[in-house]
Specification:
Helix content is about 45%, strand content about 15%. The protein is α/β, with parallel strands linked by helices. The strands form two sheets. The chain has a seven-stranded parallel beta sheet, with helices on both faces. It has a four-stranded mixed beta sheet with strand order 9-8-10-11, covered by helices on one side. α5 links the parallel β5 and β6. The chain is globular.
Amino acid sequence: MKRLTLLGATGSIGRSTLDLVRCHPSDWHLYAVAAARSVDEMVAICREFSPDLAVMTDIAAADQLRQRLADCGCPTQVEGGSEALLPIVTAHEVDTVMAAIVGAAGLLPTMAAVKAGKRVLLANKESLVTSGRLLIDAVASSGAELLPIDSEHNAIFQCLPLAVQQAGGRAHLAAHGIHKILLTGSGGPFRSRPLGELAKVTPDEACRHPNWQMGRKISVDSATMMNKGLEYIEARWLFNTRPHELSVVVHPQSVIHSMVQYCDGSVLAQLGLPDMRTPIAHAMGYPQRIDSGVAPLDFTRVGDLSFGEPDLQRYPCLALAQQACWSGQAACTALNAANEEAVAAFLEGRISYPRIAAVVADVLGLDYGNEPVCLDGVLAVDTMARQAACRLIDRDNHRS
């Protein structure tokens, strides 16, 4: 039986992962779970799965969870604070870590799991965005296994030769006959909205993704296509791509999750219904295939599939991410930090939808000094970029 630590247990990836554990109870033991402050959901998880440990990064939430589990006789031990995440990902009992904490908050525990040599199921794209070279180097030195969970990167992974899959982000793609990786994206809910109307977009509208059920932050990122930009940076590190080996294609139906072009003209694609249980099941079972609970794709009902180039005037966040990808680690870290602050401000009604890209662009234009060569350096850039973004957002509010 494999032992799993699940970071981000109450998010959409966490809930889908728990579905897989339910489907395969003889194969998986939930060793530890972690969340921020969703006490009710964590009580239900602990009562159902009886993990050894539960961590709430919010101290007050940890106290509430501890009391409620004691009241119902659940034996799960509760710890509080973000520092409590590190022991549950490095524990010798743990085989696999699902890294599904959203945002830069997932960076330290993900890196710790990698350095501990675990099999890491990576759903926290910010870890590679903010510290790609550091993470890939840590994989190589520790012998950890990094398996992508994002549907697009998991699709690419499935379409690659075994030798590239097992190279830990260090393969030379052309040497394996690979011409280009095609990263698909739906274009979000505003793909055909007139550009002049985007200033009126509300947070609820931005969160209504046409195909996927996701959290609010990632839904906004999908609308701006910043999510695809972050995935572009992530793909650069996961698959060791060069600029001419990586492109983004708009595919509104979200049936083809991504593709790999080979030098002989062949294109391999991974298709499936838009359900995150499919890539999670692939990573949890790898190299075998396991039941995900997802219905197979019925090609008689798929309908037309369409493709196009992304309109960078409509999606300036994608252009900014592609620029940052090849500019260096500081730029990628600043991009991610500024976007997190800007999206949070938009969801709170403090800035307009178009200002998300404007804030990110302004923050990217700042000087961050030398490239970070360690996690402390990455976190320093992250802090600088967040402070700059907050100043810009506050200035917007004063003007309004």
